[in-house]
Amino acid sequence: MPRIEDANGLPLTSYRASFLPADLDPIAPNAIAQGPYTISFESSSTITAVHFEACLDLVASSSANAYAASGTGWSPAKKRKEMKLPDLRYLLLMHATKQVQGFLSFMLTYEDGHEVVYCYELHLSPAVQRQGLGKHLMTLMETVGVNAKIDKSMLTVFLENAIALKFYEGLGYSEDDYSPEPRKMRNGTVKMPTYVILSKSLQEWSTDEEELEHG
């Protein structure tokens, strides 16, 4: 069986044991981030309705306007359907009160002939931003890719989101070869894309980690 299908077919507990570290919780210099926050790992079928709606609310509050301004438009129904894709996995940032304060959703899949781990969503509530928690969630997702021996990590970000672009570039992401290019229309005007596809080689990342471990 191909590697992607094999991995996605694992039970959630086996998936976690195979691809994620035993301890998912953040270790950050900020005392607030160290204390009341934990990471919960779920699938699109195991996430509770309450937590799912909290994740959808985070997407809407941070990205609905960007979707509306793009060619696709904002559709809660379409986003809800996407967030229920069978192979989607969730890393939920949970407060001690059991409230979702952020999440990252991702999938092991194929993109342009490559085996990739694709970040579908990364959203944090304003109260927990700039504490290293987004980076922590991204590192966990990339760890899944490395342990699954996946080629690269990919994601899509709206060009208007300068803060997100800077964040991902700081993590080593750059524009992917398959990112959309400006299109020249029949009347001569140029239509610029509203989003960019970023990627990062996990083979290089894995090699760097091994070199550090073995000195």
Portion in helices: 25-40%
Average predicted local confidence, pLDDT:
87
Radius of gyration from CA coordinates: 18 Å
* Largest sheet: number of strands, sense, barrel closure: 7 strands, mixed
**Segments where pLDDT lies below 50 for 5+ residues?**
211-215
Number of strands: 9
- Terminal Cα separation, in Å? 36 Å
| Percentage of residues in strands | 25-35%
Count of discrete alpha- or pi-helical segments spanning 4 or more residues: 8
User: What structural class do you assign from the helix and strand content?
Assistant: alpha+beta
| Biggest β-sheet: strands ordered side by side in the sheet | 1-2-3-4-5-9-6
What are the secondary-structure elements, in order, as H or E?
Answer: HHHEHHEEEHEHEEEEH
Please state the overall shape, judged from the principal axes of the Cα atoms: globular
In short, what is this structure?
This protein is of the alpha+beta class. Helix content is 39%, strand content 26%.
Attribute tags:
215 residues, disordered C terminus, two-stranded antiparallel sheet, 26% strand, alpha+beta
Layout of helices and strands, plus pairs?
Elements: H1 3-8, H2 12-19, H3 31-34, E1 38-43, H4 49-69, H5 76-82, E2 89-94, E3 100-111, E4 114-124, H6 133-147, E5 152-158, H7 162-170, E6 174-175, E7 183-184, E8 190-191, E9 195-201, H8 202-214
Parallel strand pairs: 4-5
Antiparallel strand pairs: 1-2, 2-3, 3-4, 5-9, 6-9, 7-8
